[in-house]
Design goal:
With 187 residues, the protein is α/β, with parallel strands linked by helices. The chain has one domain (13-182): Peroxisomal Thiolase, Chain A, domain 1, CATH 3.40.47.10. It has five helices and seven strands. It has helices spanning 13-18, 47-60, 78-92, 105-108, 115-129, and strands at residues 26-34, 67-71, 100-102, 131-132, 157-158, 164-171, 175-182. The strands form two sheets. A five-stranded mixed beta sheet has the order 1-7-6-2-3. A hairpin with a 3-residue loop joins strand 6 (164-171) and strand 7. The radius of gyration is 16 Å and the shape is globular. It starts with 12 loop residues before the first helix and ends in a 5-residue tail after the last strand.
Length: 187
């Protein structure tokens, strides 16, 4: 089954404007790391993902307080949820409490190799429309275990403006990646 699809067209602003393209957002920054903690489990303190997110913010020239949305890796396992929350808090500081977070895997499932591309497309759409997709089937985040951020449970939320968004993903062997997108400002 291969029903979840997305197409991302990456091009220079000059090229997009010349052809009259509708620009959804800008890919501002990227970051990657490998914590090599375990073949299937991320580092328990979120070090690798925090490093990838911090690098993406730095290469994109985006500050943590500009992030309005995070499309989390969000596989809905207690270990991963706790680890990913810690990583977001490390990378974003207090700004982690001010942004909306959701996992679109809760709707699409885990598409494995396709997950990063699909979730990048979701971030572009969120910035363009202001509609934050929900984390479906989330009733009670484990606040006592540190999962105390705004995970957008059950219902989508519409914001007036989404300035910047992060898509983070993890891979087997401790691979971590993050992309930072920001709204396109017409010249």
């Amino acid at each position: 089954f291969d029903k979840d699809r997305a197409v991302l067209c990456l091009e220079t602003e000059e090229h997009a404007l010349a052809r009259g393209a509708e620009i959804y957002c800008e890919l501002a920054g990227f970051g990657a790391s490998c914590d090599a903690h375990h073949i299937t489990a991320p580092h328990p303190e979120g070090r690798g993902l925090a490093a990838a997110i911090s690098q993406a913010l730095k290469t994109g020239g985006v500050s943590p307080d500009e992030i309005d949305y995070v499309n989390a890796h969000g596989t809905s396992t207690p270990y991963n949820d706790r680890f990913e929350t810690m990583a977001l808090k490390k990378a974003l500081g207090d700004a982690a409490y001010d942004c909306k977070i959701s996992s679109t895997k809760s709707v699409m499932g885990h598409t494995l190799a396709g997950a990063g591309g699909l979730e990048a497309a979701v971030c572009a759409k969120v910035i363009k429309t202001g509609v934050i997709p929900p984390t479906v089937n989330l009733d009670n985040p484990d606040i006592e275990d540190g999962c105390d951020l705004d995970y957008t449970p059950r219902e989508s939320v519409t914001m007036d403006r989404v300035r910047a968004a992060i898509s983070d993903n993890l891979g087997f062997g401790g691979h971590n990646a993050a992309l930072v997108f920001r709204e396109h400002v017409k010249p």
